[in-house]
Structures are given as C-alpha cells and as structure tokens.
Amino acid sequence: MSLPAIKVISISEAARHQQLYELPPIEVAAIGESNHIYGTLTSKGLQTTADAVTEFFGNPEAIVGCDVGCGDGELIYHLSRLLAGSAWSGFEISAQRVDMCCWHEHVTVWQGDCLKEHYADFNVLHINDLMFDDDLAMQLEAKVAREFSGLLITYRAITAPTLRRISQHLADVPTVSCAFVRRLLTRFPLRLFITHLA
Ligand SMILES: C[S@@+](CC[C@H](N)C(=O)[O-])C[C@H]1O[C@@H](n2cnc3c(N)ncnc32)[C@H](O)[C@@H]1O
Question: What is the reported pTM?
Fold first, then answer.
C-alpha cells in the first residue's frame, strides 16, 4: 500500500484553521496588528498563477520559486504539484504557521522575516497580500531590487524607485483571493514583472 502524499495532522481541520488565522498574543505583539492577517488564493487563483509562471518559463523544471510570507505553505505545495519538476520554498514570520506546515514532502518552509531573508537564489518571487504599510512595502521592494532577478508576482503596484527602474511590467492577471479572517472575497490583479539586476 502506498503512503499518503500528505502527512496527516492530528488536530481537527476546524482547530487547524482557527490556529492558522488567529495567532497567539505574543506573536501579534511582535508582528503587529495588521501584518499577520491571513488569506490565500482560491483554486482558480492558483491555476492563474501556475499558468502565468508556465507561460514565462516554458519548462517548469527551470523554476526555483519562493513565496514571501508563505503562511503554512499551502500555496507553494499546490504550485509544486501543478508545475511538475519546479522547486518551491517559502518563509513566514509566524512560528505558529511554520509549525502548521504539513506539506513537508513537497516544499521547504522556514521561519523568517522578509526584510532579512535573501532572494538571490530564486527566479520567481511570489509576494502576495502582506498587508504592509507603504514604508515597509517600500523597504521590501528596495531589498528585492538589490537582490532579485526573475519573475516577480506581486499584489502591489511597484513604488520603490530602484525596483521600478529594473522592472518591466508583463501583465496584470485577474484572480480571486479569499481573505478568510475578514470573511471577504476580494478580487484583485496579480501583477507580473520581470526584474533585471543592473
Ligand atoms: C495573506 S498571507 C499569504 C499566504 C500565502 N503567501 C498565500 O498567498 O496564500 C501573508 C503572510 O505573510 C506573513 N508575514 C507578514 N509579515 C511578514 C514578514 N515580515 N516576513 C515574513 N512573513 C510575513 C503573515 O504572517 C501571513 O501569514
């Protein structure tokens, strides 16, 4: 009998979801009131993302992708399965969410702060719904501009001058995001850019 691909978790799905969306007070105090809000793409949004990446790379085996603020890693788990041969990893500021990652056989997830991690080893960056204020978003964009070359998928229009200078806008891809905490379905475009380091 073959083993299931996904490690079975011992807590119930309901409890799991509650833990995913509600962080312990100590983490909220450390991260901030709004930055920890959790959302995720619907299956349609996932497929849209996978299609956009495929169109860009052709061969999925060339993809070395990273989800910046990956939560429990579900998005990269699905992307790695939709894009056979691609390699995905992600990092997440909340230790609780990293601990909840149950997709170990397919993705690598670690605890980290996006303003301190490094981006040079990736050729796809997915930065979605980080809920950053403009100042933090600008800091992240400036860091990406210093370190990253490749396909940048982001929910924001780029504002940092350094990143604007090295980025070429490819397309805005309509998709749907589920922001479970707010109990809302929000429609927004994913913005695709190609960035070239100087
Ligand atoms: C809306 S979720 C997106 C999850 C996943 N990327 C997706 O698209 O389905 C954003 C995640 O970013 C995390 N986050 C916020 N600030 C961060 C930071 N400075 N470094 C790393 N992760 C961060 C939050 O804790 C949250 O889990």
Answer: 0.87
Range of the domain at 73: 46-174+190-195
Q: Is residue 50 part of a domain?
A: yes
pLDDT digits (tens, 9 = 90+) for 32-48: 877 777 766 677 778 88
Mind listing the pLDDT tens digit for each residue in 60-106? 999 999 999 999 998 899 899 999 999 999 999 999 999 999 877 77
CATH number at residue 154: 3.40.50.150
Per residue, what are the HEC states of the chain? Answer: CCCCCCCCCCCCHHHHHHHHHCCCHHHHHHHCCCCCCCCEECHHHHHHHHHHHHHHHCCHHHCEEEEECCCCCHHHHHHHHHCCCCEEEEEECCHHHHHCCCCCCCCEEEECCCCCCCCCCCCEEEECCCCCCHHHHHHHHHHHHHHCCEEEEECCCCCCHHHHHHEEEEEEEEEEEEECCCCEEEEEEEEEEEECCC
Q: If you measure from the C-alpha of residue 152 to the centroid of ligand 1, how many angstroms do you get, rounded to a whole number?
A: 16
Whether residue 41 is contained in a domain is answered as no
Q: How far is the CA of 95 from the centre of ligand 1 (A)?
A: 11
Domains contained in the chain, number: 1
Residue 141 in any domain: the answer is yes
Ligand 1 contacts CB of residue 100 (under 6 A): no
Question: Ligand 1 within 6 A of 97 CB?
Answer: yes
Q: Tens digit of pLDDT for each residue in 175-195?
A: 665 554 444 455 567 899 999
